[in-house]
Write a structure and sequence with these properties.
The chain is α/β, with parallel strands linked by helices. The protein contains 12 helices and 13 strands. Helix content is 31%, strand content 20%.
Length: 376
């Protein structure tokens, strides 16, 4: 039996683990001091082509370190560490079924919401198999490398690191997106925006639509739309160069032939031409709500991609104030919002000038208002 020392993070994450600075989250920070130019300052020019610039390699986590006794230390090395002793029997030749039961028990004890599913997904990832294979091969023995890798992933999950970050990917709209701590993990509810956007542009296939995805992050909305609609020219806008590197990688892999450009931009500031559709999933969590979020979100995903002031509307307000300068006549704005923000955002939209001809609220599959449509 091996004893694994697991690095358990304190309530406040160590400065050795900085959050990524990504997407619109930075756009409500104070102006650059001492005359430092904004990253989007300067004349706007339409790109000559819509191919993404060279990709930046996705950042990989360091491999687990060994202490002086040769025991694996899960996660990263860091300043003052709290240790928790966890007994594992994941030695070479441990069978799949036993590994799953042991991991599920540990994850359940750590408070993970879906411990069995998490264990299955992580082990399937390690083995390069799918979950159904695991069910039919409970007696299959793990190799030493597989046991070690699985043990490390489970130890990191015990610390509530999101499964998507452990795998380095997240499925969105049937596509496999690369993700890491530079970007927010795509959520299923955001697929509503894509549903509505696709229906809108596919209704007139003879027309080319210019689409601006504001706060593109991983590029989930922009890349999905580009991959599925040949009649679009899409700009993915983000203030974070780190986030754009992830989006560019996803664009190159999932929509290599699309007319898709990623630009550093504070909201719509760098958009080089008027858009027919502006779509945005911006930060909308209130400061009060943030403290009650699950550890997976609060301790790992970038806070500035989530929070937007006491009412969660600071960034949305800024966007709506810019729309009139960047939207084509008869254009459409699609916003994802918090479940309690529908009426407040509707009032903000109805106060816009020029006044929109229609503002609609749409519910998600749980019956919560999740999307605002603004038609001009």
């Amino acid at each position: 039996m091996t004893i694994l020392q697991v690095n358990v993070r304190p309530a406040v994450r160590s400065l050795a683990f900085p959050r990524s600075q990504r997407r619109e989250n930075e756009n409500h920070l104070p102006a650059q001091p001492n005359g430092v130019a904004s990253p989007t300052a300067g004349a706007k020019t339409v790109p000559d082509t819509f191919t993404s610039p060279p990709m930046t390699q996705t950042r990989l986590r360091p491999q687990p370190k060994n202490n002086e006794n040769g025991l694996a230390l899960a996660g990263h090395s860091s300043p003052p560490i709290l240790y928790q002793q966890i007994a594992w029997s994941l030695t070479p030749e441990t069978p799949v079924g036993r590994a799953l039961v042991s991991a599920s028990q540990r994850l359940h004890g750590a408070g993970c919401e879906n411990p069995r599913l998490d264990a299955q997904v992580l082990l399937a990832h390690v083995l390069g198999a799918d979950r159904t294979w695991l069910f039919a091969h409970h007696d299959h023995p793990l190799t030493a490398d597989q046991a070690e890798t699985f043990t490390d992933l489970v130890a990191r999950r015990i610390q509530r690191e999101p499964v998507a970050y452990l795998l380095g990917r997240k499925e969105f709209y049937g596509l496999d997106f690369a993700v890491d701590e530079r970007v927010l993990i795509p959520r299923p509810e955001t697929e509503m925006l894509v549903d509505f956007l696709l229906a809108h542009v596919q209704a007139d296939g003879a027309r080319t639509f210019v689409v601006a995805d504001v706060g593109t992050g991983s590029g989930a909305i922009a890349v999905t739309t580009a991959a599925l609609t040949p009649n679009t020219r899409i700009y993915g806008l983000d203030i974070s160069a780190d986030a754009l590197a992830v989006a560019q990688e996803n664009g190159r892999r999932l929509a290599p032939n699309a007319r898709l450009a990623f630009l550093t931009s504070d909201l719509l500031a760098a958009l080089p031409e008027a858009a027919d559709v502006i779509v945005a999933n911006l930060p909308y969590v209130t400061d009060g709500e943030y403290t009650d979020l699950q550890p997976e979100i609060r301790e790992y995903e970038p806070q500035l991609a989530l929070t937007a002031g006491s009412k969660g509307l600071d960034v949305i307000k800024r966007l709506l104030n810019q729309v009139r300068h960047h939207l084509s006549p008869n254009g459409l704005v699609l916003l994802e919002i918090g479940h309690a923000q529908g009426e407040a955002v509707k009032r903000l939209a109805e106060a816009m000038r020029p006044r929109p001809r229609f503002v609609g609220l749409r519910q998600d599959y749980s019956g919560h208002v999740r999307m605002v449509t603004i038609e001009f």
